[in-house]
Amino acid sequence: MRPTQMTVGMREVERKARAWRERPHDEAGRYLGERMIPAVIGPEKRPWIVDHHHLALALHLEGVEMVLISILARLDHLPKKRFFAFMDAHNWLHPYDEEGRPCPWKDIPHHVGGLIDDPYRSLAGDVREAGGFAKTQTPYSEFLWADYFRDHIRRKALDSEYPEAVAHALILARERDAQHLPGWAGQSPIR
């Protein structure tokens, strides 16, 4: 499977890998069936996953060779240039590196094993899990939050003071400066 993004939060990948290891072995099929990976069939009839990259990488690292996918569209008839234009128009691509910088779509890894760590994406996931913002249907919304936190929390703090960084990010997530972000759970002033 081909990813449609360049980065993941490795803390989240590790949690998903641990959940896979800790589930009862006789429930593997059910576990995977409840977590189908949405994909688009692209050039050369390859599936391009458009969500659940963290789970896909966790399963890959755990040695799982087959997963269930849910096909959202069949675009294998399109030339690559048109395929990527379509994917971009539907917000099914996120070609940004671990520092939040845009990159050419050609830089997206060819396999989930090539995804790299963006620690701010882990931070965003942990803040969402702690109730800092709501899960939404907006594609790549956690990356928008990651960029917001990237502007307010030093990178070094994510390595040496992670629990404190999460606590700080929870406060930042409620501020009015973040109200433009999907799932914002702060309070708007009453007028």
From TrEMBL:
It comes from the Bacteria. Signal peptide: none annotated. Keywords: Plasmid. CDD domains: ParB_N_Srx_like. The keyword Zinc does not apply. This is Chromosome partitioning protein ParB.
